């Protein structure tokens, strides 16, 4: 799901008001899997055992015991299009991991849902000022 920045702020505010844990994962400038894993580790405050690979990321997003208890969790992934263009196969893997984690938490009776929003700023229009 892709949202423009205008709806992103209200979505984050509503989630926080409901007591959800909210995380903004900014991928601006990320062009490699190593950079992606580093950003994920920092933004999501992943545990020290995070192995910085796809399997470890999937494990962390399904476990979530390393996060404080909350009625739900929202991850807003921003500025992701550059990474998706630079690394389409890795982006597809990343999306699959996020989707699987969301589905996993929808099926759980305990722990609250996990939701992921993909947001990117609108494309800049060229300046037509003389």
Record keyword descriptors for this entry.
130 residues, alpha/beta, globular, 46% helix, four-stranded parallel sheet
What's the story with the biggest beta sheet?
4 strands, parallel
Strand order of the largest sheet: 1-4-3-2
Question: Using DSSP, what is the number of strands?
Answer: 4
Low-confidence stretches: 1-5
Helix content: 40-55%
**First-residue to last-residue Cα separation:** 37 Å
Give the helix tally: 5
Please state the average pLDDT score: 88
Instruction: Write the H/E string, N to C.
Output: EHEHHEHHE
Instruction: Supply Rg.
Output: 15 Å
The general outline is: globular
Strand content: 15-25%
Structural class: alpha/beta
Topology:
Elements: E1 2-3, H1 5-17, E2 21-26, H2 33-43, H3 54-63, E3 73-78, H4 81-86, H5 88-107, E4 114-119
Helix pairs in contact: 3-5
Structure, described:
It is built from 5 helices and 4 strands; from the N terminus they run βαβααβααβ. It has helices spanning 5-17, 33-43, 54-63, 81-86, 88-107; strands at 2-3, 21-26, 73-78, 114-119. Strands 1-4-3-2 form a 4-stranded parallel beta sheet, with helices on both faces. The protein starts with a strand and ends in an 11-residue tail after the last strand.
